Amino acid sequence: QVQLVESGGGLVQAGGSLRLSCAASGNIYGLNTMGWYRQAPGKQRDLVARITTGGSTNYGDSVKGRFTISRDNAKTLVYLQMNRLRPEDTAVYYCNMRYVNGMDYWGKGTLVTVSS
Predict the structure, then answer these.
(1) CA-to-CA distance for 106 and 42, rounded, in angstroms?
(2) Distance, CA of 85 to CA of 4 (rounded, Å)
(3) Exposure check for the chain: N or C terminus, fewer CB within 10 A?
(4) Residue 5: its pLDDT value, please?
(5) 53-77, pLDDT tens digit by residue?
(6) How far apart are CA 111 and CA 94, in angstroms?
(7) Cα separation, 88 vs 32, whole angstroms
(8) Closest alpha carbon to 40 in 103, 105, 112
(9) Which residues contact 79 (CB under 8 A, 6 or more apart)?
């Protein structure tokens, strides 16, 4: 069993920065990707950024050039550095870990609110 705990959300003005963290506990054997998704009210949950165990990354189109995903070498911590935040970035951000066997684990989410 894997547990994910996010932190770092909050209220920030447009143009500001936040750094989200996700700490994983449990068995990470077979881990494939670590990532961040977000869900705004009334919208679907979308990919923000993802990083493989090999270090390859990919980003949602709306955050490219502004957000950066990283992880620690033990692959138990994943971060999301968010710069030049916009009001449309307001959402609940969820940490995700996906395993090679297809299993998905999710955190409970952390709210990011960007004021204009």
Answers:
(1) 19
(2) 24
(3) N
(4) 95
(5) 889 999 999 999 999 999 987 778 9
(6) 9
(7) 29
(8) 112
(9) 19, 20, 21, 22, 69, 70, 71
